Amino acid sequence: MKKMIMLAFALMMMGGSISAQEKIQLPQPDMKLLNMPLAETLQLRRSSRNYQKDKAITDAQLATILWAAVGINDPKSGRLTTPTAVNMQDIKVYVCNEKGVWLYNSNDNSLTNVYKEDLRPSLVARQTFVMDAPVTLLLVSEQSKRNFHNERYGAMDAGYVSQDIYLACAAMGMKTVARAMMDQEAVKKALNLQEGDYPMLNHPIGYGQ
Fold it and tell me: What is the pTM of this model?
């Protein structure tokens, strides 16, 4: 029993509580982490390709970035922090790390495991620095359940989300870069995406060198 407890603790220390759990309840987004004037945040926004491999981000930081990306900023109306074409609210954010892939659920601020292997090798596409970042956020425009599929709208919506990720990272002193490079077919297969679901961008996130 003691060994099992120590193993669970070790997994948590390797990347917050984002371990091999089916569903994870995230802490509430910490608005204090984003308490930086907009002008300063814009000045600090950068694309970075160098990450500290052994420095994890906390669950509170992750929850705050996810809220900035596609969180609910008005519970009464269900409106999101980012706009979407014809109010599709199509962008889904997947959290990828060495232990698997989790889908962010903005309604209850949780993560649901959807893949139990490291998907990041399918996101590398010759840019091996991706493996150094402790977490990569994958942006997918999921339109398969709609009467029409519009990849152009999905690209626009992914751009809005991408910018919010950039700004949240800048405000918290972390680094990221928007990438379109990935093995599209491998990603679709691993996540069981349907026709009309478009993997758009991925964002490695972590601390710079």
Answer: 0.90
